Structures are given as structure tokens and as C-alpha cells.
Amino acid sequence: RRHSRYGPEDGFDFWNAVVSIGAFIILIGMIVFAVNIVRSWLGYKAGTVPQEPADPWDGRTLEWAIPSPTPEHNFDYVPVVTDVDDFWHKKYQPDANGKLRKIADGNAIAQKGDQHPHLPSPSYWPIVLAAALPLIALGLIYNLWITGIGLVLLLGAMYGWSLEPATDPDAGHDGHGDDHGDDHGPDNHDPDGSNEAESVTAEEAPVD
Fold it and tell me: Which of 1, 45, 70, 186 is such that its CA lies 20 to 30 A from the CA of 51?
């Protein structure tokens, strides 16, 4: 790995060429991957790339039970798992002859991602804490003063993070704040998605 070429007497010419070709193949694959990411993102922004459904591959596991693109909170409510590959068993069940039959479409039974349960407010302290860790490591290698600075940052970030309010109405995710903090499952809502606590309409409210 530390030589660009070997002498004929080393006998590594062939394998060095094989490794070099493999490295270029890996580079080409990474370039294709990066181009695909950029094209997909630009196409999504321009509206030329259709949004994929929640379960395009008829998946077995729970990550296919949430919408696409994935919301910040992942699941609207914690799914109740009763089987291995529970999402699969919600779509397929054996018939009288023991053969699997599809009983539901994955996209139809996937969570909708529109409940907005309570999430911790955005915070800068985790970034500060993460920045302190490499300082501590570098200080142990080069200078203990750097480690001291990292430790101060680490302890300060832990202290600030622990005292940070869990609910900040002015810094909610997606602009929803914490108005939906009581959404813990589908039973808290009417079939049309409205909350029972909001059943009193403006017409029914008393007027002064």
C-alpha cells in the first residue's frame, strides 16, 4: 500500500495491477452513486421524479410501514409487533390449505406520517458535545491543554443540554411546535384524522 510500484524482483507486479484496477472500479462506483444522489435530488425538487410509495418492494420489516420520504418522527405511534416480520404478516396470511394469500396492500396499511407526535426541540448542544470529543483525543496525542479545552466543552455541553427545556413552542419540527404532543396512537383521533378534543367548532363556541 505504501509503494506505487515494485521492483521486478519482488514479484508483485501482477497483483499490484489487480489491486489498482479494483481501486479504480470502486472509484467509478462511488462516482455513479454520487451522480445518482444529485440527479435524484434535483429531479425531486423539479417534480420530474415521482414520489415512491411507502412499500414499493413489498417489504417484510417495519421500515416499510412508514411513508416515503420518511418523516422526522419516523412512526406516528409505536407499532405493536406480534410476529417476526410483523409487517409481512399483516399483508399475508395462510389460507385453509396453508398457502400464503395477500390480504392487504402494504401502502394501504402503512402509517401516514401526519400525526406529528412530540419530538425534542432542536438543539445545538449535541454538536458542541460532538466537537469536544476529537479535541480530547487530539490532546491526548499532542498536548494535554487541548484535552483540557475539550473536557471543558464536553462538560459544558452536557450541562447545557441537561438544563435545556424539553418543549420549546417556538422551535418545533416542521413548524408544528408542540401542538400535537399528545398524539400517541391512532385511537386518539377520529377516523377523519381530527382530534376529539377539537370537536367543538367555531359555530358551536359561545359568542360574547
Answer: 186
Cell of 12: 508483485
What pLDDT score does 152 carry? Answer: 96
Q: How many domains are there within the chain?
A: 3
Residues in the chain: 208
Residue 23 lies in a domain: yes
Residue 38 placed within a domain: yes
Residue 82 belongs to domain spanning: 62-109
pTM: 0.50
Residues 69 and 100 in one domain: yes
DSSP code string of 115-168: S----PPP-SHHHHHHHHHHHHHHHHHS-HHHHHHHHHHHHHHHHHHHHS-S--
